């Protein structure tokens, strides 16, 4: 019985680690990342673009 | 002990306590803003902003363009002489080094180093989406396109 438990535990742990890796990509926070990018772009191209980040912050 | 209990005790609990798994951000109530205020990030953004003054004429002229992966690259070298090209090459190198460090630093500041490539792709999309018409960008198929 003990070897079976060990195998089940090892396989389960491997699956969880794998799922964790996939989840971090799957659950990448797209909106906050876009907001961060817009803030950076507002700072780098101040005379070129309408500041999106500031406008959205005002709205919310 | 049934198999579910065995799974929970042997695998799930140790993995959770070791921080291997956690609540995915998408399941959280709201997605918090990313931290982009670390001194390293602020300094990189300042450096990129300062360099933009030198890069802008080349972007306007189509000598260089943006790439889908958040970098910049030479587009049309026929428009400048060899000496200017040498200086521009150095600028491009510095710019891409800063940008790569920026994406890595944002991932690191948010304790998710594995996000670096997703951040790079997201920034790439936003740079291109917000750049003015007339500039060039290279898409993920390697094709240069003039933004209209």
Describe this structure in words.
- The complex is a heterodimer of chains A (60) and B (148).
- By secondary structure, chain A is mainly alpha-helical.
- Chain A has one domain (2-59).
- Chain A has helices at 2-26, 30-44, 52-59.
- Chain A is rod-shaped.
- The mean pLDDT of chain A is 73.
- Helix content of chain B is 55%, strand content 9%.
- Chain B contains four helices and four strands.
- In chain B, strands 2-1-3-4 form a four-stranded mixed sheet.
- In chain B, strand 1 and strand 2 form a beta hairpin.
- In chain B, helix 2 runs antiparallel to helix 3 (82-109) and helix 3 packs across helix 4.
- The N and C termini of chain B lie far apart (66 Å).
- The interface between A and B is large, with 36 and 40 residues.
Summarize the structure.
Helices cover 80% and strands 0% of the residues of chain A. Chain A has 60 residues and is an all-alpha fold. Chain A has one domain (2-59).
User: How many strands appear in the DSSP assignment of chain B?
Assistant: 4
What fraction, in percent, of the residue positions of chain B are helical? 40-55%
* Largest sheet report of chain B: 4 strands, mixed
Order of helices and strands of chain A: HHH
Looking at how many chains there are and whether they match, the oligomeric state comes to: heterodimer
* N- and C-termini, Cα separation of chain A: 58 Å
The profile of the biggest β sheet of chain A is: none
